[in-house]
Amino acid sequence: MINYLKNNPDNVAQWFFAHLWLSVLPVVVGLVVALPIGWIASRYKWSYPPITNLAGLLYTIPSLALFIIMPSILGTKILSPVNMVVALSVYSVALLVRVVADGLNSVAPDVRAAATAMGFTGFSRFLKVDLPIAVPVITAGLRVATVSNVSLVSIGALIGVPQLGSLFTTGFGRYIPGIVLLGVILCLLLALVLDGLILLGSRMLTPWQRAVAKR
C-alpha cells in the first residue's frame, strides 16, 4: 500500500480530488432541487405522502444500472463524469426531499405565528425563520447523503470513471490487497472530512444552539 502510494502519488491525488467533487457536487445540486420540493411537501400536507414515496422509489434504483443508462438519457459519452453527477444528484434528491419536509414541519406553529406578527411572510419567513430552524434536521440528511455518495462514487470505476474506486479495480486486477486497502482508507478519510465540514457548517449556521447548550 505504501509503495503504491509512493510510486503513484499523482494518480492517487488526481483520483482523490475527482472523488471529492463527484461526491460533493451532487449533494449541492440535490439540496437545491430538494428545498422547493420539500417546501411543497411541507406546505401542502396532501402532497407529502406521494412526494416522499416517489423520492423513496428513486433511491431503490440500482446505482450501476443508473450509471449505465444515463448516457442514453442525456446523450453523453459512457465515461463522462456528467452521468455520475446526474445519477448521484437523483439519489441526493431522493434522500433530501423527506428531510427538508420534516425539517420544515419541525418549526413550531407558535414560532411561525410570532414571525408573521413581526412582519415575516412568504419567502422572507421561509428564508429567515423556517429554514434556519430546520438546519439541524437538514444537516442530518446532508451527512447521510454525502457519506452515501462517497461510497456510490467508487462504483463508477466499474464503468471506467477515474476516482478512488480505481484503486479497488487496480488492486483486485493485480491481486494486491494493499491497493484495495488504500482505497478504503482514503474513502473513509474523505467521508470523515466531509462529515466534519458539514457539522462545522451547521454549528456556524445555528449559533443559538450553542448558547442554549451552555445554559
UniProtKB/TrEMBL annotation:
Source species, domain of life:
Bacteria
Q: What keywords sit in the KW lines?
A: Membrane, Transmembrane, Transmembrane helix, Transport
Does the record carry Nucleotidyltransferase as a key word? no
Residues spanning the membrane: 20-42, 54-74, 80-101, 133-159, 179-200
Could you tell me which CDD domains the record lists for this protein?
A: TM_PBP2
Q: Which InterPro entries match?
A: ABC_transp_perm/SBD (IPR051204), MetI-like (IPR000515), MetI-like_sf (IPR035906)
The membrane topology noted for this protein in its Swiss-Prot or TrEMBL record is:
Multi-pass membrane protein
In what residue span(s) does the ABC transmembrane type-1 domain sit? 16-198
Q: Does the keyword ATP-binding apply?
A: no
* Pfam families on file: BPD_transp_1
Cell compartments where the protein resides? Cell membrane; Membrane
Concerning its family, UniProt says: Belongs to the binding-protein-dependent transport system permease family.
Its protein name is Osmoprotectant transport system permease protein
- Organism of origin: Kineosporia succinea
